[in-house]
Amino acid sequence: MRKIYYAFMFLSLVVITSCGKKTDKDRAIALVEAKYENSNQKLNFDGSKLDSLYNISPAAYADSLKKGNELDTTLATLESEIEHLSQAESDSVGLISAKLTKERYHLLDLAKIKPAFMGWKLSGVVVEGGKLDTLSFNFDKGITKIVP
Q1: What is the per-residue pLDDT across 18-68, written as a single tens digit (0 to 9) for each?
Q2: Which of 10, 105, 118, 137 has the maximum number of C-beta atoms within 10 A of its C-beta?
Q3: CA–CA dist 123, 133 (Å, integer)
Q4: Exposed, middle or buried by CB within 10 Å (0-12, 13-18, 19+), for 41?
Q5: What is the pTM of this model?
Q6: Residue 57 to residues 4, 52, 89, 117, 119: CA-CA distances in angstroms?
Q7: How far apart are CA 39 and CA 125, in angstroms?
Q8: ∠ CA 12-13-17 to the nearest 5 degrees?
């Protein structure tokens, strides 16, 4: 009987503590509500969405690496083919190769910028009333304050 009592108390404690934790979105909404508490505007958070902010999106970073590798392959092919062309064709291919090389250096510069987490963005907050506006808010990493 005593074991059942302790198990029940433990489960009750777990349920109470897990229900009391706020999600990141809840904390962000609370900060926005605190900012607008003295305002006449009513905000609707039903369709809002909390997303992470990066200096460069991880998808764009991966895409730039992929495009860079593709450009390397294309440039290597052009370099091997240029020897078998006439002077006029060789000059044209050289111009194309120069443009591709410039793009490759640009992609190499992007590859040096690793994606870094900058904070959070709450978007899709609707201002209710006469004119329907949609607002977005940026937050620091810990969702402790609204940042510009």
Answers
A1: 555 678 899 999 999 989 888 888 888 888 899 988 888 888 888 888 888
A2: 137
A3: 12
A4: exposed
A5: 0.56
A6: 51, 10, 40, 9, 12
A7: 15
A8: 120
C-alpha gyration radius of the chain: 27
How far is it, in rounded angstroms, from Cα 21 to Cα 62?
35
CA–CA gap between residue 69 and residue 79 (Å, rounded): 15
pLDDT at 69 over 70: yes
Sequence-separated (6 or more) residues with CB below 8 Å from residue 96: 78
For residue 6, the model assigns a pLDDT of 61
Other C-beta atoms within 10 Å of 131: how many?
6
The residues facing 125 across adjacent strands are 135
φ/ψ of 126, rounded to 5, equals -95, 130
Q: Minimal CA–CA distance to 69: which of 112, 36, 108?
A: 108
Q: How large is the average pLDDT for residues 85-90?
A: 79
The single-letter code of the amino acid at 48 is S
Three-class SS of residue 1?
coil
C-alpha–C-alpha distance, residues 139 and 146, integer Å: 5
